[in-house]
Amino acid sequence: MNRANTAAAGQSAYTAQSTTTAASSGQFAHFPPLQREIMQFIVSQPKSDEGVHVAAIARHVATLGPDLGNAHSISCAATQLIKVVTVAQVVRVRRYDTATLLDLEDGTTGGKIFAKRWLNGRDSDGLPDEEQYYARIMGTIVRGAHETKNTLNVQVFQRVTDPHQLFLHILEAAFVSLTLERGPPPLSVRRSVGPRLRSGEQDVDESVLPSAPTTPAVTRVARPSHASTSTPTQQVFVSGPATTPRAHTPPTPIAHPRTPATLVAPPRTPPAPIVRPPTPPRSPSSRYATPPSSPSSSTAQSPPPSPSPAPAKASSSAINQPSESRRVSGIKRDPWAHLSAIERAILLQIFNAPSGEDVDVRTITRGVSHHQVTQAEISHALDALTDKGFVVPLDNEHYIIKTNHYPTSS
């Protein structure tokens, strides 16, 4: 605090000098906000030899709130922002002994941003020795006591070489603005992310994974009504690939490395081949040989029916009807897809209003008049939007958007 305007009346009390009066409190306009409030509070107190106690000053400052006269603070949707990030073009660079001044252009309304990078005792600011390039800058918004414009105090400076970083910044700015205004989107409308490998997780060795089971060849055997023991011919019909019969060899004994005993698998007896009488040569068109009919058998036995249920046939209405996944994905792409044309037009009229302002029914009626609708239809559409949670009526004539509403597919 400026000692020329205050005098210590003790260890814990202050009083204004005689030359400072309440009428001349305008001279504190150049003070920082906190000092200006303290000086005005001291001057406004009754004159006393004891002065104003520091506890009284502290109580007064506590009533002013945390954002006391903070002229350089910025906010978005009633949320105070501490740090900002921008991707802008460096138009001009001015270097001084203690700091480097930058003139930036980010393409918004007004467009110009004044940035400052302090050297803090360093010999160089670390910036390129050129102009007219893009950079990604993060810093804080500050304003000095005697300054009339905000300045971006540069903390992180990174030159942009990939043009996609500019588009990424635009999407990030839109996402952050909508999140601050309407809240984060629910899980139902977020894009699902597949599982990723966690850090430190070992790779799976594919050599130890079990291999897929091999499907054996299907064997079809024609069974006659009775087997003839006098016929020396043996025939077996196999529908799989032709293979050469091999003699069965017993398995090799396997010794477990941890036990001294040896485990030996008992030999298995190969199945005996099926004996049937010889058949006449088959025609080239037939795929499988048909056994001759026996005098004692009338017809060959048909194979048993499959235990699996028959697949259900889809009706024509189910084929023509779109799938549920397509309907859900369409709603996610357009949250208003299930609304009528008049309801969508009303929402657009309310959205076109300035932020935070309500819209009356007359403005809505004029905006949707090209739809050739009546006043009753407009009233019914407003009631439907209110029931669905898209708009909030302030009274019978004014409506605003419910900003924290995210339509979902459910």
UniProtKB/TrEMBL annotation:
Where are stretches of biased composition, namely Low complexity?
Answer: 255-266, 284-301
Determine the domain of life of the protein's source. Eukaryota
Which portions of the sequence form the region Disordered? 184-331
List, alphabetically, the SUPFAM superfamilies matched. Nucleic acid-binding proteins (SSF50249)
Provide ranges: composition bias, Pro residues: 267-283
Q: Where is the composition biased (Polar residues)?
A: 226-237
| Record's protein name | Replication protein A C-terminal domain-containing protein
Which taxonomic lineage is given here?
Answer: Eukaryota, Fungi, Dikarya, Basidiomycota, Agaricomycotina
